[in-house]
Amino acid sequence: MKLEWEETLTYGIVLHSSVTIAGVSMVLSNQQGNCVYDPKRIKVMQVMKVKENNISRHRHLQSGVSPEDSHVYVMYHGTSKQIAVDIQRNGFKPSKDGMLGAGVYLSRDIRKAIKYPIGADDSDRMVLKVKVDVGKVKIIDVQGHDRQYDWHTYGYDTAWVPPGVGMVPSNQQENCVYDPKRIKVMALLKVAILKKLNPSLEVES
C-alpha cells in the first residue's frame, strides 16, 4: 500500500473512485494496475524523461530497511520556500553540526520531511525530492555511538539512524550525507499541495 501511495505522489494521480489490482496474476508483469473511470480526476504535474539505465537505481526504500552501500535512493528534505529555491539553484549547504555531526540531513519518509521547518505554516513549507548516492553507509543505532559525530573521517559517506531506536524525537529514521555533491534535486514539492492530493498526510503530520 505504501508503494502505491508513493507512486501516486510521483506521478500526480489521485486514485479515488478507482479500481486497483496488485499481485493477483491479472497483469502480465505481476505488478499493480489502476483504472480511473473519469479522466477529469487525473492531473499531470510533470513530464519526466526516463533513462533506461536509471530505472532500477533510484529506489524508494522503506523507512525501516537498511540502505546498501553504493546504491542510489530517493529521499526528501523539508525546508522553507526561499531556502528550497536557493538549494535548487546553488546546491545543499551542509550543516556544521547536528545529531550526526556535519552534513546534509534527509529522510526517506516524506511524512517526516513535510513537518519542516518546525513551526512554519504549510504555505511556506516545501519538500525537495532528491536522489542520493549513499556511497559507504554507517549505521548509528544508539545515542553516544563511538562514531556518532566523526563517521565521515573513517571513510563513510552517509550515516543512517534506523527508526525506533530513540535517537530522533519523532522516533523516525534519519540520514546524514557528508558530501552534498552526492545529492541531486529531482523536484520541488509544495507541502500544501501534497496534503491536498493526499489527505492522509494531513492526518499523519
If you had to describe this structure to a student in words, what would you say it looks like?
By secondary structure, the chain is an alpha+beta fold. It has 2 domains: 1-48, no CATH class; 57-204, Phosphoenolpyruvate Carboxykinase, domain 3 (Alpha-Beta Complex), CATH 3.90.228.10. Helix content is 18%, strand content 24%. The chain has 5 helices and 10 strands, in the order H-E-E-E-E-H-E-H-E-E-E-E-E-H-H. A 4-stranded mixed sheet has the order 3-4-6-10. Residues 1-18 and 49-57 have low confidence and may be disordered. Residues 40-137 form the PARP catalytic domain.
Please summarize what this structure is.
This protein has 205 residues and is of the alpha+beta class. The protein contains five helices and ten strands, in the order αββββαβαβββββαα.
Helix content: 10-25%
* Span between termini: 18 Å
Q: Which percent band covers the strand fraction?
A: 15-25%
Biggest beta sheet summary:
4 strands, mixed
Family: Belongs to the ARTD/PARP family.
InterPro entries: Poly(ADP-ribose)pol_cat_dom
Domain PARP catalytic: 40-137
GO molecular function: NAD+ poly-ADP-ribosyltransferase activity
